[in-house]
RNA sequence: GGCCCGUUCGUCUAUCGGCUAGGACGCAUGGUUCUCAUCCAUGUAAGAGGGGUUCGACUCCCCUACGGGCUACCA
């Protein structure tokens, strides 16, 4: 029986969830879940300098919002915990001692000043900046004496002098590195805390991770990781290096280009379903090899929820070229998912964006208003602008806007008077879109009048806009009194 | 500079050597329609360049170009 797949998402808590991080998390989730495996969440906080207050809680909260659920991890617990690296110090020390004892790592007493100077000289000489291995051949006694004398030191990994290190990436295949190019990098910092390179290997092994899912930017340290597994005598897991996500100009997606945090997208009114769907499509596609279109019964084969993606997902369908983060398709998907929402849910989501304070619009009224704009919404934050005309007392617009095509303003106003006449006959209790429409359209048809010459002015009088929902539905929502008042105001303009 | 990864429509992508290069978004046009949006239909647009291998190469190999990543006691 094959062992179950187990992946992990291991972010460092920097204060927000990067969109690239979301994708890594999603793919780690999918790789495991598509094969009935497990995903865990591990917090990599070995760099105390970057520690940000409350970052872990924020991270977990936003991850939860996206719908990616972990089987174990920080704040969740689990049998391989703790899942926060700062709480695993003893473990790291123990494994470091093992490496030291077997001669695979060594203490280095070089000062950061010396290191820096050395690097500068190497660069000036057009050499690759690399630690010169000064302390590598220190005898055990010499090193021990220095330690006892209280000298500050780090622990470095001893790299083989010159061998070909062959590593296997699940997406790219074999990648070769010459170990001579590899630095004796730091495993344990002078404060005793491990570096990422050391902590990942120990943790992934101890937590029985079967597939390491991470960004392509880690490929350069891939051989170092493999060598560490070898040094410990451990079997290395499989590695999946995801292609990078770039910004529109092809550069690295960073804070400076804006809009990179998931929190940001949430604040703008993007739905988690849309974000997940979109991000999944960045580097993965649902089209199968046999028939290009995975499911012909579906209209748009790319609209998929998390469960459907999980079902269709296959590691082999992950592409290896970096993708540009272009939000056009995201907007399309978001609009789609907004249209699928049931109205009560949509109202709940829109309320914070509407910012109506304590004005006296009834819940029922607000719900109808939002209902009218549902199919026009691409982002939740557009709701305020889109529905504003339902909430203001006086519409502001140029009276010439009342004119439809080639008619003139006086005619438009005359037509509005006719509309008022018709509307006044409709009793309050019959004030529905259907009866308003029936009455007006029937009248116009029997008189063989041009529909646009009446409906356009009516709509503008009610909304003050060139683009809006239809006049009948708007009239219904506004109510008889307000509708008539707005049309009268239009005539008096 | 060195090492490494990548390169199909504007964007995300499909193609396990046979292609009239498929889909999605976008865009354009048409239909529905008072407007916008929705919905439907149609259209638009691609294999970085050069060498090989092969009956045949978008697919395999090499070189070049371009893009990107890494090069910390950051992750």
Strand content: 5-15%
- DSSP helical segment count: 19
Q: What's the pLDDT, averaged over the residues? A: 92
Q: What is the rounded distance between the termini?
A: 81 Å
Q: Show unreliable segments.
A: 290-296
**Total beta strands:** 12
**Anisotropy-based shape:** elongated
Instruction: Describe the strand arrangement of the main beta sheet, using strand numbers.
Output: 1-2-3
Query: Helical amount among residues, as a percent range?
Result: 40-55%
* Alpha carbon gyration radius: 32 Å
> What would you call the structural class?
mainly alpha
Largest sheet: 3 strands, parallel
Summarize the structure.
The protein is mostly helical and 493 residues long. Helix content is 44%, strand content 10%.
Which features does this protein show?
12 strands, mainly alpha, elongated, 3-stranded antiparallel β-sheet, 493 residues, 3-stranded parallel β-sheet, RNA-binding
Describe this structure in words.
The protein is mainly alpha-helical. It is elongated, with a radius of gyration of 32 Å. It has a three-stranded parallel β-sheet with strand order 1-2-3, covered by helices on one side. It has a three-stranded antiparallel β-sheet with strand order 4-5-8. Strands 6-7 form a two-stranded antiparallel sheet. The protein has helices at 19-33, 55-66, 89-101, 112-124, 140-148, 196-206, 222-232, 262-267, 272-281, 306-312, 328-340, 343-354, 363-373, 383-391, 409-424, 433-446, 451-463, 471-478, 480-492, and strands spanning 6-9, 38-41, 72-73, 105-108, 154-157, 164-169, 173-178, 186-188, 211-215, 238-242, 245-246, 323-324. The model is unreliable at 290-296 (pLDDT under 50). It is 44% helix and 10% strand. It binds one RNA strand of 75 nucleotides through helix 4, strand 7, helix 6, strand 12 and helix 11.
């Amino acid at each position: 029986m094959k062992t179950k797949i187990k992946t992990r998402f291991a972010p460092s808590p920097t204060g927000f969830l990067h969109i690239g991080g979301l994708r890594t998390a999603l793919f780690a989730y999918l790789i495991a879940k598509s094969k009935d495996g497990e995903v865990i969440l591990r917090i990599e906080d070995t760099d105390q300098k970057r520690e940000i207050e409350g970052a872990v809680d924020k991270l977990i909260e936003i991850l939860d919002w996206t719908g990616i659920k972990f089987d174990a991890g920080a704040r969740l617990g689990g049998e391989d915990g703790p899942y926060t690296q700062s709480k695993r110090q003893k473990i790291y020390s123990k494994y470091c001692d093992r490496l030291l004892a077997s001669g695979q790592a060594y203490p280095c007493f070089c000062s950061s000043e010396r290191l820096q100077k050395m690097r500068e000289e190497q660069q000036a000489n057009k050499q690759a900046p690399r630690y010169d291995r000064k302390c590598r051949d220190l005898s055990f006694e010499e090193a021990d004496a220095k330690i006892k004398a209280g000298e500050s030191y780090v622990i470095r990994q001893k790299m083989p002098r010159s061998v070909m290190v062959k590593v296997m990436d699940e997406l790219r295949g074999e990648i070769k590195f010459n170990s001579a190019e590899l630095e004796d990098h730091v495993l344990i910092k002078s404060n005793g805390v491990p570096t990422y390179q050391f902590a990942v290997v120990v943790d992934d092994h101890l937590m029985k991770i079967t597939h390491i899912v991470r960004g392509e930017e880690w490929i350069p340290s891939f051989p170092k990781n493999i060598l560490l597994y070898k040094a410990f005598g451990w079997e290395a897991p499989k590695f999946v290096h995801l292609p990078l996500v770039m910004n529109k100009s092809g550069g690295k997606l960073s804070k400076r280009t804006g809009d990179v945090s998931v929190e940001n997208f949430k604040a703008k009114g993007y739905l988690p379903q849309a974000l997940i769907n979109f991000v999944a499509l960045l580097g993965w596609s649902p089209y199968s090899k046999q028939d290009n279109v995975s499911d012909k019964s579906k209209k748009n084969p790319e609209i998929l929820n998390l469960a459907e993606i999980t079902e269709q997902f296959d590691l082999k369908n992950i592409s290896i070229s970096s993708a540009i983060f272009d939000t056009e398709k995201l907007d399309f998907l978001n609009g789609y998912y907004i249209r699928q929402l049931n109205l009560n849910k949509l109202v709940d989501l829109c309320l914070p964006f509407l910012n109506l304070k304590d004005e006296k619009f009834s819940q029922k009224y607000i719900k109808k208003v939002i209902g009218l704009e549902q199919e026009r919404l691409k982002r939740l934050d557009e709701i305020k602008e889109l529905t504003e005309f339902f909430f203001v007392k006086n519409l502001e617009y140029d009276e010439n806007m009342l004119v439809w095509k080639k008619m003139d303003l006086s005619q438009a106003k005359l037509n509005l008077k006719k509309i008022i006449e018709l509307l006044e006959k409709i009793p309050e209790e019959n004030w529905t879109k259907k009866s308003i429409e029936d009455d007006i359209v029937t009248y116009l048809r029997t008189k063989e009048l041009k529909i646009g010459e009446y409906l356009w002015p009516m709509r503008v009088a009610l909304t003050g806009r060139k683009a809006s929902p239809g006049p009948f539905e708007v009239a219904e929502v506004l109510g008889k009194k307000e509708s008539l008042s707005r049309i009268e105001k239009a005539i008096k303009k």
